[in-house]
Amino acid sequence: xxxxxxxxxxxxxxxxxxxxxxxxxxxxxxxxxxxxxxxxxxxxxxxxxxxxxxxxxxxxxxxxxxxxxxxxxxxxxxxxxxxxxxx
Length: 87
Fold this sequence. Notes:
The chain has helices at 5-16, 44-53, 70-73, 75-86; strands at 34-36, 61-63. The protein is mainly alpha-helical and 87 residues long. It has a two-stranded parallel ribbon with strand order 1-2. Strand 1, helix 2 (44-53) and strand 2 form a beta-alpha-beta unit. The chain is flat and about 35 Å long. It starts with a helix and ends with a helix.
């Protein structure tokens, strides 16, 4: 929690080496993204982008007021979205 979000973002960006976004079109499994609307590490727009570009993705679910780990901070909302995806 003490890490500056910009530092975390830079580390994640540099660790990838190259963009994997072109591979989204090749995903052939069902995909449900459940994301915190206030995530400062992986922006909510990233989940929306993935949901729009992966062939079998459902629309991204954004949990209001949740950050990067909505399963920890908003477990009821997270598991409701998870259960809905399984149904």
